[in-house]
Amino acid sequence: MSEKLAALRTCIERGKSSAKSAYPPDMKGQPGATELVEELLAAGVSAEKILNESLIPGMREVGRKFQCNEAFVPDMLVSADAMKKAMALLREELLKAKVEPKGTFIVGTVKGDLHDIGKNLVAMMVEGAGWEVVDLGVDVGADKFLAALKEHPKGVVGMSALLTTTMGGMKATVETLRKDFPNVKVIIGGAPITDNFAKEINANGYAPDPQGAIELLEKIA
Ligand code: B12
Asked: Is the CB of 167 under 6 A from ligand 1?
């Protein structure tokens, strides 16, 4: 069974979602993530084991490669797609087994900003790392973050900004959130954001990429 778990991990890492999928070309015709999850479940392997020994390590590896420029945005997208399909098969079993998510990550692109490619990648990878993700979309003001925090008071907030004109609004948003939720943790990211800027606005941290976001969340949550 450990061979199948390893094969599933490779499918996630390479973005092979099913046997039908033509991508990646060198894995054509081989079983993909969905077939392997079905086989493992049928053989009695627990959903938790599949998640922890195949899916999460597979996603972690893509994140690591992206950090050191060995993988690129399309690679993460296909891996996240394979992960999503595998997770859909596991979801029912995980609910039965009551596997708790690591936490809740409330993420959005800030007010006035419509860039969501990076934010979506972060959301997908964080979900792949075992977190519940509440994605508020784009153009998200303090009011929407607050409403989500009221529903998920232990949530960690993630804000994305791609414009120098919209990153300025992050400071006021952090202040507004802390009025009602003084201990809320906020992490920020996006091309113009820096570690110094995160310190300046009293955010709990900055990460330059999805793997960094996961590591930061695990450190601060
Ligand atoms: C694609 C794009 C668009 C698309 C967005 C489509 C979409 N659905 O997202 C469209 C065409 C809509 C667009 C519009 C505009 N854009 Co634009 N756009 C870009 C472009 C080319 C790529 C951005 C991108 O997706 N990068 C790829 C992703 C993967 O990277 P990323 O977003 O940085 O995310 C990574 C990290 O930053 C991090 N991260 C991201 N979010 C978060 C969040 C957290 C919590 C954490 C921890 C990490 C994290 O992880 C991600 C993955 O590694 C950039 C140029 C560039 N090369 O960056 C310009 C750019 C951002 N755009 C720019 C501008 C000016 C605009 C417009 C104002 C143009 C106009 N005059 O209309 C409008 C603004 C619209 C608006 N109100 O938002 C400027 C911004 C300049 C500035 N200094 O502010 C840029 C830099 C182009 C330029 N050189 O001038 N844009």
From this structure: no
